[in-house]
Each structure stands twice: as C-alpha cells, then as structure tokens.
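TL;DR need structure tokens for one chain.
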Amino acid sequence: GWRLWEARKRKKIPVGFKDFDLPLWTGAQDISGRQILLHWEQGFGDTVQFIRYAPLVQAKGADVALMVQPELAPLIRRVMPEVVLVDEAPADPTLQCPLMSLPRAFGTTLENIPAAPAWLADTARRDVWRARLGTASKPRIGLAWRGSAGHGNDRNRSLGLRDIQPIIQDQAQWIGIQKGMPDADRQALASVAGLRVFDEEITDFEDTAALIAEMDLIISVDTSLVHLAGSMGRECWVMLPFNPDWRWLLDREDSPWYPTLRLFRQKRLGDWATVLQEIRAALTKRFG
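>> reply
TL;DR here they are.
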C-alpha cells in the first residue's frame, strides 16, 4: 500500500526526490496557518496525476508552495491559478511533502480517489492548432507510440512506428502527438500513409493540451500524454505492457484515476499484436 510506497525514498528510485531538510507532512499534523512545500519528484505524468491533491492541502488551511518541473509550470500556473507555484523552496516552510506521498497523507483508497481535474486548453493555442490542422473531414485521432527513451521501462512500454502502423486506417485523420522520434521512425514515416506528425511544432505542454483538445480520441502508450488527456476529461485509449506501472492496477479496462481512459493490456509479455488487434476492432465499432 501507500506505506510501502514510501520505501522508494530509501531505494533512491525517484528522479529529483529531495526532502529539503524539512519534516514530512504525513497527514497527521495540523497544517492550518502553516506553510507547506509540495514538490515533484519523478516524471511529468506523475506530477499531472498527483497534483490534484494540492487544492486539498490548501483546503486544510495551509499556505501551499508548489514546485513542479519547469516544463510543466506554464500549464499548471494557468489551470490551477489558486495554487502558488515557486521555482525554488521558500525560506520559511515548516513542512514538506512530495506530490506522490499525498495519497498516503489523505488515506486514499480505490473508493475515495479525488476526482480528476477538468482542465481546458488555452484558447489562443487551440486557435493556432485548429488553423494548422485544417478542416476535419473525418474524426481526428491523436497517436503516441513511444515514450521517453530514458524511462526505466521504455523498452517494454514503447513501440516503433512500423509496429503501430496496423491501426492507422482511413476511417480517421491520424495526428502524431509525438515529441522526438528516433531515426528508424523518421525513415518509416514516409511509408505510413494518413499520419501527420508535428513533433517539431509541439514546443511545450500548452501545445500538447491544445492538440488533445482538437482530437476526438487519443491512443497512446503509457506517457505523460495519457495523464494530460485524463486530466482534461478527454477520451483516451492506453496501450499497456504485460507488467504495467502500478497505477494501472491489474485485470481491468478502466482507471479509477481517470474515468475517460480505457486500458488495452498485453496478455503475454511483448505481445503488442493482440493489443493492436483489439484496438482495430474497437476503432471499427467506434467509427465504422
């Protein structure tokens, strides 16, 4: 459970974890009128998933200072204006808590997970992307087949562009919401009809959010895109490896963290073919 999850700090699993030489808020201490530092520790998706707890800490009367990755800061500052973002630890907080320790502090169970936020994309960015995409003659599907190469489980969670090609059918307009591609994917792109990729035009998470908002559906491997789509209340189908990250649980097609997500799981280690077959069938049912 959440208590055992705290062992990640001793194992030095997280990227960017610090305790700032401050006591950890465990949920037991009264924080009314006290300043508490909430801070990121791992990936972008982790921050997006657990930042929903920040307003709950604030509701307990705390003076919240929130640190997120610089890449996420403009988006978070816009969609959560009630929370004060800081670039570095303030001089006088009395407590600290990593975002990923907040579920334990709030006694979170599957039955009481706080509702996902309902973020909106920036209107001006949406206008830019709407013009860039042009008129939609078919449903638009955003596609991400690859995560960050630096992720510890990337070889199991990511696919190559040629691997994902079987689901790219002509019942939809396919938009690659993919930042950064290896040479093999770039070489394959010319032979994948019907897929437009805007990796060079996507400059930040505000662009990503605007693109998500213009899609009828997102299909993605387990990356921050999934968390952003879920936090925007957008329909997203997630392709998961046989041994998925803990947050996706086991033996279920839905996520208690994000009601708009649908999970497609490998039945055997490395078996993406079956996942893609299931998605093709679901696409036919959804769009004809």
